[in-house]
UniProtKB/TrEMBL annotation:
Pfam families: DUF3604 (PF12228)
Recorded superkingdom: Bacteria
This protein's name: Polymerase/histidinol phosphatase N-terminal domain-containing protein
Segments forming domain Polymerase/histidinol phosphatase N-terminal: 63-140
Cited InterPro entries: DUF3604 (IPR022028), Pol/His_phosphatase_N (IPR003141), Pol/histidinol_Pase-like (IPR016195), TAT_signal (IPR006311)
Length: 402
């Protein structure tokens, strides 16, 4: 059976493996499925449970949506990748080999079909979701992952970000993500906005490998990728990925991953949750993050132009982090870096309840960053910036209604 596209409701030098910054913070292993919240891998500590303390109707799955094989510039056989990711404890995983990037040979049509066949063979509805995707790759403008399409686009079919957006909008249900934003100098034509593609551009990588991209390029005079992207008008979820190019898919502590809140662990439900932006970025296995603002889940639109907004944040990594001090930073639009309008101290395992005054005149988005205040940010921003500590997670944004 060929790999099929799932309908999504409307509206809604690469081989380098970097050393794990702040690795002492991390512990290994995830539960093996969305229904096995209290199991462990290889005797490692259990993470947090999969049920939110502040919302109902969804469960948490742990995902990695950006991985490579020998079908582009990775080292490992595609036949082994999905099994490795499931064994490592991921609940949702994707293979996203490069489309051809000039000197780097990428996916062929037959390899694209093979990726779909492998995803179908590994897919286990309710337990493990295997997804086929590809990475559109431009050497100057950047890389964009695409999922849930029946075909793929290389630079001959879409030679610029704008061309790719036009290609994507011709494929309803297709979803995409800005990858490692700022690593390539053009930064997606400086995040030039395309209104017709806004809903389908469903992700912005905040963690790629071990890197926190909040201040990527700032020391060279560039704007924070988060600020540039959201200020341009895009409305992505925030995500983390390993961008694996080796042979140990899924078996990493300290590298990016995402948490996604789904109705069930199936392709249709995963794509629905991605389109709704019900995700958080992290680089810690077993972490649970859920958040609401005036009762609206992260990724949603607030019916607020000005006034106090009440946030609830459910933050837990289980017994391994009992009593661990953490910090919440409330990020708002800035110029070169996000403005932090409040900082709240909290502790692992608590629901934190706090209120922040917001005004759409100051910008239409807000993000919560969770950090470990005892560790430094490996890529800091302006001197004295509250986000110069070690990021543990980012919620997806909320948008204020103008």
């Amino acid at each position: 059976m060929p790999y099929g596209q799932v309908e999504v409701p409307a509206g809604f030098g690469r081989r380098a493996l970097l050393a794990g910054a702040g690795g002492t913070l991390m512990l290994a292993a995830l539960p093996t499925s969305a229904r096995a919240a209290n199991t462990t891998m290889a005797g490692a500590p259990t993470g947090a449970g999969r049920t939110s303390r502040i919302t109902q109707g969804t469960m948490l799955v742990h995902t990695d949506m950006h991985n490579h094989t020998v079908m582009s510039d990775g080292d490992g056989s595609a036949e082994a990748a999905f099994a490795s990711m499931r064994e490592a404890g991921l609940d949702v995983a994707a293979l996203t080999d490069h489309a051809t990037l000039f000197s780097i040979e990428g996916l062929s049509s037959s390899e694209w079909r093979t990726t779909g066949d492998l995803a179908n063979a590994a897919n286990d509805p309710g337990q493990f979701t295997a997804i086929r995707g590809f990475e559109w790759s431009h050497p100057l403008q950047g890389h964009i992952n695409v999922w849930n399409t029946s075909d793929f686009a290389d630079l001959l079919r879409a030679g610029s970000p704008g061309s790719l957006y036009n290609w994507l909008t011709g494929r309803p249900g297709g979803l995409a993500s800005f990858n490692h934003p700022g690593r390539e100098a053009g930064r997606f034509n400086n995040f030039s906005f395309n209104a017709s593609a806004r809903d389908q551009l469903a992700g912005l990588e905040m963690f790629n490998r071990t890197d926190d991209f909040l201040f990527e390029g700032w020391s060279s005079g560039m704007t924070s990728p988060l600020v540039a992207c959201l200020n341009a008008g895009w409305r992505p979820a925030l995500t983390g990925v390993t961008d694996e190019h080796g042979t140990t898919w899924g078996f990493h502590e300290g590298k990016g991953r995402s948490g996604l809140w789904v109705a069930e662990n199936t392709r249709a439900a995963v794509f629905e949750a991605m389109a709704a932006r019900r995700s958080f970025a992290t680089r810690v296995s077993g972490l649970r993050v859920d958040a609401t603002a005036n009762g609206v889940r992260m990724g949603g639109v607030l019916n607020v132009t000005s006034g106090d907004v009440r946030f609830l944040l459910d933050l837990d990594r289980g017994a391994a982090w009992d009593g661990k001090p953490l910090r919440i930073q409330v990020l708002r639009p800035g110029t070169s870096a996000p403005t932090v309008v409040d900082v709240i101290d909290t502790v692992n395992g608590q629901v934190t309840d706090f209120t922040v005054p917001l005004n759409v005149a100051d910008g239409d988005w807000v993000v919560l960053r969770i950090s470990d205040p005892s560790l430094p940010n490996g890529t800091p921003g302006p001197a004295g910036h509250p986000c110069n500590d070690f990021a543990v997670a980012y919620t997806s944004p909320w948008w204020l209604r103008p």
